[in-house]
Amino acid sequence: MRILWLSPWLRTLTRVQVDALRAAGHEALVVTTDQHYEKVTARPDERVLDPAIKDPRTLPALARVTAEAGRFAPDVVVSELMHDPRWLPMTRLAPLVQVVHDDRPHGADEERPWYRDAVLDLQTRTAAAVVAPSTHVAAVLSARFGRRVDVVPLTSDVPEADLPPVPAPASQRRDVVLLGRISPYKNVEVALRAWAAHTVSPAYQGDRLLVLGDGPLERLDLPEHVEWRREPFAYADVLPVLARAKASLAHYRLATQSGVQVLSMQLGVPTIVSDSGGLPEFAAPDLPPLRVDDVEGLTAVLDKLADPSTAAAVGASAREHYERHFSAERAAAGWGEVFARVGRRSGGGRA
Fold first, then answer.
1. CATH number at residue 217
2. 254 falls in which pLDDT band (50, 70, 90)?
3. Mean pLDDT of the 136-148 span
């Protein structure tokens, strides 16, 4: 099939997914923007638009890309976090597959203007198919909009070719990492309490808790052996650190899915999650989810993973779990099933 993929925000994830779809025999044209925190150079299959809605100077480029999208003659259009009303004509070029990652904002900093929600809701109501990354989100959306919602596995937005050697052996394992946009929903205070308890236990082996990323949290009272690198990061900088970690913390208070969770498993890192939202669905069997306020339970897991041999073994299991359930190839197979059904329903589609 010929796929037009509209993704103004998740540029790196889109690349991984369309590459896997291309390997499965599909064609793709991507329309995106330069808003992703990982700055990359445009590829031949990407058209990069300026997202400034109120600037009339952006309109000629938008018109050119819209015309090119029409000439591409897609069999299906994928819209992922696309809330720019100027892009809506491109969603009407073929049956629309609407992708919804979260069932609600994670906090006040993620609240959108009303017109953006209106665009997203319009697409969700009228699309030929709606896709979510977890059954948790799918169930909420299905109840809200009264329609079927498919689940396609969330894969990592880092290509396998860009990974350091994984999984790391026990001899290289050190530290625990809390990665991403450091927001209140990341449950950092509970993580810090558990870490403080871990560092005074007999299991502690001198590791640090590395908090990597900036965000709306104004300040943190950091206990000993915690380092907050409060700055924007590039994958090239953080992947080697995360890949050697004894554990990755995705123990969030509110979450419907987590890119950090799947990235950590892809790297072969034990990934500690809470029982919030869709996180339990992604969790590897060796590390069951914990309650969001379970400081004692989180401390016990940190004590267990302080042993590098244990961390390496659990990490290898997490890597296998990722490959079986969340690899780019698995995601592409899920997308292919949705596209085939939408194409049959519309009476179109090219194999």
1. 3.40.50.2000
2. confident
3. 96
Q: Are residues 130 and 261 in the same domain?
A: no
pTM of the model: 0.92
Residue 167, preceding bond cis, omega within 30 degrees? yes
Q: Over 80: is that where the pLDDT of 231 sits?
A: yes
- Would 351 be classed as within a structural domain? no
Q: Does residue 262 sit within a domain? A: yes
**Closest CA relative to residue 37, chosen from 223, 168, 212, 290:** 212
Q: Which two tokens stand for residue 334?
A: 């899920």
Q: Where are the beta strands (DSSP E) in 7-118?
A: 27-32, 46-48, 76-80, 96-99
In order of 2, 5, 19, 208, 280, the CA distances from 28 in angstroms are 6, 7, 9, 43, 32
102 plus 138 within the same structural domain: yes
Q: Which domain holds residue 235?
A: 160-325
Q: Are residues 309 and 259 in the same domain?
A: yes
Name the nearest CA neighbour of 79 among 62, 97, 92, 95.
97
Q: 189: which residues sit within 8 A by CB, 6+ positions away?
A: 220
